[in-house]
Amino acid sequence: MSQAKIIDGNAVAADVRAAVASQITILRAGGAPLPGLAVVLVGADPASQVYVRNKNKRAAEVGINSFEHYLPAETSEAELLGLVERLNLDPQVHGILVQLPLPAQIDAQKILEAIHPAKDVDGFHPFNVGRLVTGGPALVPCTPLGCLLLAKRELGSLSGKRAIVLGRSNIVGKPMAQLLLRESATVTIAHSRTHDLPEECRRADIVVAAVGRPEMVKGDWIKPGALVLDVGINRIPAAEPGKTRLVGDVAFAEAVTVAGAITPVPGGIGPMTIAILLRNVLEACCRLHDLPFAEVL
Ligand SMILES: Nc1nc2c(c(=O)[nH]1)N[C@@H](CN(C=O)c1ccc(C(=O)N[C@@H](CCC(=O)O)C(=O)O)cc1)CN2
Ligand SMILES: [Mg+2]
Questions:
Q1: Dihedrals φ, ψ of 237, to 5°?
Q2: Secondary-structure percent of the chain, ordered helix, strand, coil, rounded to 5
Q3: Do 142-266 and 29-129+272-288 fall under one CATH topology?
Q4: Whether residue 33 has its Cβ less than 6 Å from ligand 1
Q5: How does pLDDT run across 134-187, given as a tens digit for each residue?
Q6: What is the CA radius of gyration of the chain?
Q7: Pocket test residue of 8, 80, 99 for ligand 1, highest count of atoms within 8 A of CB
Q8: Domain ranges for the chain
Q9: Where, in this chain's numbering, is NADP(+) bound (predicted)?
């Protein structure tokens, strides 16, 4: 039985952060302003609190100034729009990130569309989405860009590769498919209505799983030697009563015996998301100040 290479997302994320940090050091020495990231959390979702804390901590480590905004769960849409408007105008802020999900009384799309596209380090604004599709310069969503970076590190050129993206969310699936297309891969987007998903999957050289269903992708769905990128983060009951554990959208123990390379959960794509956010803040800052930006890795 073969064994896939297990991609160490923590190690690659550390490389990305180091590249961001050294670029910031060089730019600052030349008189560039301190890059600034505003992170907004509404409510007290425990997972979101962890992600936001990590974003602020990692930002500080690479030399990005972070502005933390913790708002109560009852915050109104108008209040949040007011904060976004202030951040849009704040010259110390180059990136604005509103942590998702937002509470039910707030229309998330309305908030995302209020963020100035030049400060949209999540890449969720329709301006950046359109730019990604049409091929112009764009801020690109962090998780798919992290996946792309890992794929290019593993495979080199993606040109002509068959890729399947499982899931069609605005945050991962759709931008992932566009990024793969931009690299001249042949892209299939699969979803809950796709017929014979296992067979579609078996044709792919690259599988990106982003459906949010624990261990849905089985080992026999994977083409031998394929690259498997698992975006799922699902908390399920552990063997020990009362405990939970994290699993991805891929049945790892099965897939690892078939794939050529695979990302684990945790420690695969997740850490890349925050590292790429820092990269995006640097890119936004460089564009806003007409400074050179060099791609990380
Ligand atoms: N505004 C945004 N909201 C959300 C995004 C986003 O990109 N922008 N993505 C996710 C949450 N997220 C970052 O915000 C995120 C998720 C997971 C990880 C991560 O490092 N995961 C670890 C495991 C963590 C754990 O133990 O729970 C891993 O996979 O190793 C980082 C960031 C939704 N919201
Ligand atoms: Mg994400």
A1: -60, 135
A2: 45, 15, 40
A3: yes
A4: no
A5: 999 999 999 999 999 999 999 999 999 999 999 999 999 999 999 999 999 999
A6: 19
A7: 99
A8: 29-129+272-288, 142-266
A9: 167-169, 233
